[in-house]
Write a structure and sequence with these properties.
mainly alpha
Length: 140
């Protein structure tokens, strides 16, 4: 599902060309730096996975992955999947982005591009809490 409409020649491989992100001022690192950025990102994850709250950890890791934009396609889906994996393994509800709220999600990511990860942390916490409330009300 994650790579359903992705060309099979690029699935799971780091991108090999410079790219621009539609609708964003952020310019991801060039292909030759991706491996190093990914290594540093996951070193950061392993050194912070106990120190940080799971919502904060997942949100910041999400933004780091989106900033690196390591793949030709599926970067946002991959970042959301990993953030949700962190939430779920720590018994927090997933964050599911409502299409009507996608603009706020992108705004939070843009703040992260400017070095302000607090916005994506707040956004993911809010959406996760709302998802929990929604699921709780369905049970009643």
């Amino acid at each position: 599902l994650l790579t359903q409409n992705t060309d099979c020649r690029i699935k799971g491989a780091y991108r090999d060309e410079k790219i621009l992100i539609t609708g964003s001022e952020w310019i991801p690192p060039p292909p030759e730096k991706i491996r190093d950025f990914m290594k540093k990102t996951f070193q950061w994850y392993y050194s912070n996975r106990i120190k940080l709250h799971p919502v904060e950890l997942g949100a910041i890791l999400h933004n780091q992955l989106v900033r690196i934009h390591p793949f030709t396609d599926g970067n946002g889906r991959t970042a959301r999947l990993i953030a949700n994996w962190i939430l779920l393994k720590n018994e927090f509800p997933m964050f599911i982005i409502d299409l009507k709220d996608k603009i706020n999600y992108y705004k939070a990511i843009e703040q992260g591009d400017k070095g302000n990860d607090a916005e994506i942390v707040h956004y993911i916490a809010k959406v996760s809490i709302n998802q929990h409330i929604f699921e709780s009300e369905k049970i009643k």
